[in-house]
């Protein structure tokens, strides 16, 4: 299959490109910079220069492909409105290019806010609806194209897709521990994060592209819910610093913007995804990665 990948040089995107190439697919990666383009060329992928605001490039990439994997996002935490706007416009552009083809559009989503008091499941609809909602409500936008002949599939990622080289949420929490000389959880540390290793996440994206039916919601979740106090303890052990807790009202000051997320319960199940795609995570767990020095 000829696959157009946005975010092809990013954390999850790079691993997904490797996974797709290893499985025999042709990959065309969207690249903003010469450095990203060179990296993709070196892997054996084709390159389409452009970014999320280059709608002509997105149309060309999707129109010439047999499948699309959308993993790019501006992640501008200082201007979420702009990130959401760009995301919604990009997804709408990609979907319009695939109308009537029956071809797959796999797009990234998350598990936050799916349920209260229990792990979120694939049956839970995304609460993000409309342009002003997180990610511009793109999961619901994309799934709305199923009736227009697009095999839309939402790949919902755990709040941490971890591994050596990760610079995402866990790296930010560890940076706060180094900065303050203590590793902290929020409140009583009972809130939970689901987690998945990068290799397992990339394999899930490939399987979703190849096999998932139109309208499927997939959960890239290997560990259903790790209490934040256990995450803090693993970080403290790895760094050799004391472990403590911070009050919820002090979380943003202590951690930065990530404090608002670390205090959220984001447990999620992947039981349906595993059965649907015969997907069995095999990578190391989050605490194992932290203790083994993946973030050293």
From TrEMBL:
InterPro entries: Epimerase_deHydtase, NAD(P)-bd_dom_sf, NAD(P)-dependent_oxidoreduct. Residues 116-136 are annotated as: Disordered. Residues 3-212 form the NAD-dependent epimerase/dehydratase domain. PANTHER family: NAD(P)-BINDING DOMAIN-CONTAINING PROTEIN-RELATED (PTHR48079:SF6), PROTEIN YEEZ (PTHR48079). This is SDR family oxidoreductase. It comes from Actinomycetospora rhizophila. The lineage of its organism: Bacteria, Bacillati, Actinomycetota, Actinomycetes, Pseudonocardiales.
């Amino acid at each position: 299959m000829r696959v157009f990948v946005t975010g092809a040089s990013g954390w999850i995107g790079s691993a997904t490109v490797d996974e797709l190439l290893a499985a025999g697919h042709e990959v065309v990666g969207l690249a903003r910079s010469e450095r990203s383009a060179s990296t993709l060329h070196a892997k054996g992928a084709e390159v389409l220069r452009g970014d999320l605001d280059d709608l002509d490039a997105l149309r060309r990439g999707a129109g010439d492909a047999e499948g699309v994997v959308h993993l790019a996002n501006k992640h501008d935490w200082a201007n979420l409105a702009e990130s959401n706007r760009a995301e919604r416009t990009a997804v709408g552009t990609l979907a319009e290019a695939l109308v009537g083809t029956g071809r797959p559009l796999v797009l990234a989503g998350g598990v936050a806010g799916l349920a209260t008091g229990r792990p979120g499941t694939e049956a839970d609809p995304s609460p993000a609806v409309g342009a002003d909602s997180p990610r511009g409500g793109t999961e619901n936008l994309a799934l709305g194209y199923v009736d227009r002949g697009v095999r839309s599939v939402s790949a919902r990622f755990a709040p941490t897709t971890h591994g050596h080289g990760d610079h995402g949420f866990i790296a930010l929490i560890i940076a706060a521990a180094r900065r303050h000389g203590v590793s902290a959880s929020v409140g009583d540390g009972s809130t939970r994060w689901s987690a998945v290793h990068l290799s397992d996440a990339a394999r899930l994206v490939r399987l979703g592209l190849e096999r998932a039916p139109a309208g499927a919601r997939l959960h890239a979740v290997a560990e259903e819910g790790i209490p934040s106090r256990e995450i803090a303890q693993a970080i403290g052990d790895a760094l050799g610093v004391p472990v403590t807790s911070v009050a919820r009202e002090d979380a943003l000051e202590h951690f930065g913007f990530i404090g608002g997320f670390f205090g959220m319960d984001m447990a999620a199940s992947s039981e349906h995804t595993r059965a649907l795609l015969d997907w069995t995570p095999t990578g190391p767990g989050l605490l194992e990665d932290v203790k083994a020095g993946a973030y050293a």
